[in-house]
Write a structure and sequence with these properties.
There is one protein chain. The chain folds into 3 domains: about 1-105, no CATH class; about 115-200; about 220-300. It has 3 helices and 23 strands. The protein has helices spanning about 15-20, 35-40, 95-105; strands spanning about 1-5, 10-15, 20-25, 25-30, 55-60, 70, 85, 120-125, 130-135, 140-150, 155-160, 170, 180, 190-195, 195-200, 225-230, 235-240, 245-255, 260-265, 270-275, 280-285, 290-295, 295-300. The chain has about 300 residues and is mainly β. The protein is about 5% helix and about 45% strand. The chain is globular, with a radius of gyration of 21 Å. It has an 8-stranded antiparallel beta sheet, with no helix packed on it. Strands 21-20-19-18-17-16-23-22 form an 8-stranded antiparallel beta sheet, with no helix packed on it. Strands 2-1-5-6 form a 4-stranded antiparallel beta sheet.
Amino acid sequence: MDAWMHAGGGAKDVTDIVKGLVVNEELHVNPHRQPQYMNRTFWPETAGGPAIPRKLAVRYSYGIDGPISTVETKAVPHETEALHVTRDGMSGNGTLPHLVNSIAQDDFQGKISAEDLQGCWGCVCFPAFGAIERKLAYGPDVLVHSGLCLPLLLGYSDPWDRRSGTNIFYKRAKPEETLDYSMSNTPGGCFSFGPGCTCRLCKCCGDDVRRGEKLIPAKEMEGCWGCLCWPGFGAIEKRKADGDDTLWHSGICCPLFLPYNDAWDRTPGTNVFKKRNAEDRIEYKTPGGFICFGIACTMKLC
């Protein structure tokens, strides 16, 4: 199987991602026709906007000697396209009959929307691992987990999709990993899963502002922040606005206890702020919350 993502004159090999979506010898890409699904899944570095109509092409065969076929989506605004490949030859951009009931079950009694699960979360797993992460909703059925794995300080960003008709979300890259939010008494409560447990620390991402939709004034990012950088550095700092497009970061770097006072300026037309006279950048998806950038992460404390 080969798969390519196309947009204008550009193309990207997404074969490995598509192979990870194959279940029981069937491939179903974006069966619910979610906006921007193709960008989020196959070209995430551009998913924040502006919207770029892309098309997905998949070349496949059943068996080593089977006939080779190619199917692709159309490049339509917001990518509300679906692509299906099955052994019985039903492939293309339609809705397969055995998926109709699955899609209809998306509105069920007791459904917890992904928007109600947004926020900053903490996780602890046996024997001695943990994570601090931000969960950001893309519609009612997709959560993107972005955070830092402890104690190794490894950054990650993974989309999780709803299992149709349930409040169970599974990791797109590893469908066997699941979180059942119905185990929680509230959409953001604490609950156990396998050898670990997770708990929402704050609902700081509830008013999501994505790049290209709205510029966040620097004033809204003011406050006390904490930072962690690989391999073992950190900082506690205060961020103070100077107009709408400049933030001053004043704090102390640990463990060396070195003070600093740096100006960060907005990249015009975006929510990306760049340290003045340096290459360090931070992109704000929300006025607060948990943000990973490079080999570091930062979080608003108050």
